[in-house]
Amino acid sequence: MTYRTLEAAPRLSGVLSGIDAREGLLIGGAMRAASDHGSFDVVDPACGEPFATVADATLEDARAAVDAAAAALPAWGATAPRLRGELLRSLFSLMIDAEDDLAALISAENGKSLADALGEIRYAAEFFRWFSEEAVRTEGGFGPSPAGGTRTLVTHRPIGVVAMITPWNFPAAMATRKIAPALAAGCTVVLKPASLTPLTAVALGRLIERAGVPAGVVNILPSTRSAQISTTWLEDSRVRAVSFTGSTQVGRTLMRQAADKVLVSSMELGGNAPFIVAPDTDLDAAVAGAVQAKFRGAGEACTAANRFYVHADVHDAFVERLARAVRALRVGPALGPAGCEIGPMITVRARDAITELLERAVAAGARVAARSECPTGPGAFLPATILAGVAPDAEIVRTEIFGPVAPVIAWDDEEQMLGWANGTDAGLASYVFSGDLGWAMRLAERLEFGMVGINRGLVSDPAAPFGGLKESGIGREGAREGVREFQETQYWSIAWD
Q: Which of 84, 202, 338, 489 has the highest CB neighbour number within 10 Å of its CB?
């Protein structure tokens, strides 16, 4: 039976009609079409066919968005923190109320399973709730100078208009993780979502409109002109910060552009997460954590476990148990009747690149320990795969896979294993499983990664400062630190006799 998106999910037609993506640009408080009435198709990676059409923002629209954000900034920055918090809380409620519709959109345009998509929506909504509470946690300082004769008052103010660029793998969460703290801080926003997954951002724009967020405070521009729009924004003197989530390569380019205007830059970039299993680990817990860390969202996450270092004493048992779990995973269309746990890769090109990487690994000596079943025919599907017998310096270990492939390496020397784990330019997430919590925490202190999951396969939390070390980025999102990314510190030196 041929899979077609709107036939597989009839309710999606109503969702698409409700968001009206042909008028999907949010500029100055109103949803509208592109200035040249251009549009582009959105393709379901489960079948490779378009199922929706979205307004394609122009450079004129990009400039209009900055005009709107700059005009809205003074009033929004002066808005009482309590009111900003109440609007964010309203957005949380609206997202939760619409979670099923939003999850269906994500599954259709991104391909991730409905369960993963629903989890993302709830996680994304939580940023609105968290920062609705942080908006009123204003703080500063006041006290005498060491030399006497003066008092120093320290305060924090909104940085201004912020340009945001979000990726395709978490189209809801990456938007709210940036928008929410910026609004809490009193900033205004221009945001360009990934052209592969624009529908979720359009739907979010509709909710922002419904919530009563003042005109111009949030502007959202889906577009195929990614580089041109980002350049237009970063060259505009009214834009004072850029927040980007995506590849390290693109991040470097944006940082070079931001340097010309000395813009504040927040970058959440690529990863290459190690997953370390100690000999005293509860293997069932480790396997459950591995499935979550590796295969959630089909492995298309910068925090995904990328290389598994398993102690030689438990290596074979771990591989055997993980193999059973992988063979049980159902791969297929997220909106199909089977309720699949792993959907397609985002594009056929992405699937083929991972397939070639996998084939080179096998040619270099790795062996396929287990594979899930996988649909044939159209769609960018890739079986969940475990590789054993992988060399510590193999290409597949040094590469961010961004797919459902788990290479396993045996270790028996802690210092050597730590060198392997830290021997990468990336430093985003890492995972440690051990029955000895003290050992795990001591190892965590030596891991060169911004986040460490200890005996759990998930590290993301709105209440925690998400971010990496080394080439995995600069800045933090979430927690109190998330607001600080969108504030400037000012102090007054006051004569005091």
A: 202
Write the secondary structure of 34-99 as one string of H (helix), E (strand) and C (coil).
CCCCCEEEEEECCCCEEEEEEECCCHHHHHHHHHHHHHHHHHHHHCCHHHHHHHHHHHHHHHHHCH
State the Cα–Cα distance between residues 255 and 242, nearest whole angstrom: 9
The CA distance from 37 to 33, in Å, is 6
Residue with the larger pLDDT of the pair 339 and 210: 210
Amino acid at the residue 34: A
Structure tokens at 149: 């004769």
Q: Is residue 302 flagged as an active site residue?
A: yes
The structure's pTM equals 0.96
User: In the prediction, which pLDDT does 139 show?
Assistant: 85
Predicted local distance difference test score (pLDDT) of residue 1: 59
Residues 37, 57: Cα–Cα separation, whole Å: 9
* β 305-311/451-454 pair status: unpaired
Asked whether 95 and 446 are in contact (CB, 8 A), the reply is no
Count, residues in the chain: 497
Beta strands, E only, 207-322: 218-220, 239-245, 264-268, 273-277, 305-311
pLDDT of residue 497: 81
Catalytic residue (one of 120, 126, 268, 341): 268
In 347-477, where does DSSP find H-type helix?
Answer: 348-363, 395-398, 414-422, 437-446
Domain boundaries, the chain: 5-269+473-491, 273-461
3-state secondary structure of 218: strand
> CB of 55 within 8 A of CB of 23?
yes
Q: Average pLDDT for residues 328-342, to the nearest whole number?
A: 90
Give the residue among 103, 496, 459 at the shortest CA–CA distance from 293. 459
- Is 374 an annotated catalytic residue? no
- Has residue 448 got a pLDDT over 80? yes
Class of the CATH-defined domain 5-269+473-491: alpha beta
Say what the pLDDT of residue 228 is. 97
Q: How much is the pLDDT for 376?
A: 86
* Annotated catalytic residue, options 187, 302, 340, 374: 302
Q: What would the mean pLDDT of 432-452 be, rounded to a whole number?
A: 98
Q: Which structure tokens are listed for 471?
A: 């080439």
Share of the chain above pLDDT 70, in %: 100
Domain range 273-461, CATH architecture: 3-Layer(aba) Sandwich (3.40)
